[in-house]
Specification:
Blueprint: E1 6-10, H1 15-27, E2 31-40, E3 45-46, H2 53-63, E4 67-72, H3 78-94, E5 99-101, H4 108-119, E6 124-126, H5 134-143, E7 147-153, H6 169-174, E8 188-194, E9 204-212, E10 215-222
Parallel strand pairs: 1-2, 1-5, 2-4, 5-6
Antiparallel strand pairs: 2-3, 7-8, 7-10, 9-10
Length: about 220
């Protein structure tokens, strides 16, 4: 029986990528050998999620995988982002990586974009959570022991008071109608600090809440 293809996991620091890691490991169809994360260089934080690199590194240690960081500027044009990712994927392919695993749920245009870009370097995308009912999936994550904090919210879609809240059943119950329970339309982003994909919880404290570039960010620091 041939060995499964070697894969990187696109790690956003949040719940969907973490759960995708958990599911992909249990399925065993690919061998995940590392994490891939974009970090905004001027802030030293995971792009869009606003998570500090120190916590990102602790997450990587807790899941037991090496971390590849792709640095991007702020602001970052689509062209600059695409060039940075193409260089990273070309390097990965040269090391025998055949796939990238993503935590995307249902946005077809995002899936097509990822598939097309990976195809240019002879790689393919894997989506272990694709098509799942996001309400059921969100509650499955919580019941499965995942703990995450909302680190970025879009105040045009949800209350800015959700920044810094735990992603839990109470939060899901409080979400307005039309808001995706997993935030797949960009309503919110999270930072995972515990779950079955980590070998132990990361002790954190919630810090300052700031508004920047139309979003509300809640800082998370190591306790």
């Amino acid at each position: 029986m041939p060995a499964p293809p070697r894969a990187l996991l696109s790690w956003s620091s949040g719940k969907d990528s973490a759960w995708a890691l958990h599911v992909a490991r249990s399925q065993g169809e690919v061998e995940i050998v590392g994490l891939l994360t974009t970090v905004t260089s001027s802030f030293g934080r995971v792009s869009m999620h606003g998570v500090r690199e120190e916590i990102l590194e602790r997450q990587a240690h807790a899941v037991g995988l090496p971390l590849t960081v792709v640095s991007i500027p702020s602001p970052c044009s689509n062209e600059v982002y695409a060039a940075a990712m193409h260089a990273a994927m070309t390097a990965a392919r040269a090391q025998g990586i055949q796939c990238v695993v993503f935590g995307d749920l249902f946005l077809a245009d995002i899936r097509a974009y990822r598939e097309a870009n990976l195809a240019t370097v002879g790689m393919r995308a894997v989506f272990p959570l694709w098509g799942r009912d996001t309400g059921a999936l969100a509650r499955e994550m919580i019941a499965g022991g995942l703990r995450a904090i909302l680190t970025c919210v879009d105040p045009r879609r949800v209350s800015k008071d959700l920044a810094g809240r735990w992603f839990d059943a109470a939060l899901l119950d409080a979400l307005p109608q039309g808001v995706d329970p997993c935030g797949e339309h960009g309503e919110f982003h999270t930072c995972v600090v515990a779950g079955p994909m980590l070998d132990g919880a990361i002790a954190v404290e919630r810090g300052e809440v700031v508004e920047r570039d139309g979003f509300v960010f809640a800082d998370v620091v190591v306790a």
